[in-house]
Here is the input.
Amino acid sequence: QEQVVESGGGLVQPGGSLRLSCTASGFTLEHYSIGWFRQAPGKEREGVSCIRRDDGSTYYADSVKGRFTISRDNAKNTVYLQLNSLKPEDTAVYYCAATPADVLTYNWARVPYRYWGQGTQVTVSS
Here is the structure.
C-alpha cells in the first residue's frame, strides 16, 4: 500500500527548531516531487515547501524563506523539513504529499498531489 507518514512534530518555544520527516512506503519517493503543506485552525491549507523529483530544485513560501529547509535522503526514502527560528504563527498541522507532476516555482502548491499523510502537529508557544 502506497503511503507517506509524517513525524517529528511537537511543542517548541519561539525561536526554536524542529525537523519533520516524511517517509514513503510502497513506492520510491525520489520519483515524486514532495510538498509540505500546513493548516492552522480556521485557516486554509497553504503550501510551505517543495522539492522537485528530478533535479532536487526547492521552493518555499515567502513566509518561511530563510527559516525552513527541505531536503531528501533517497536511501531512506525520506524527505525532511528543517524548521528554524519558529514563530507562533507557524503553529499548524503539517502534511507532506507526493506528486508525479512536474512542479515549478509558480505551480508547486497547486498541482494535484497523489499521496497525502495524516499530518503532524507543530505548536510554537512559550
In short: The chain has no helices and eleven strands.
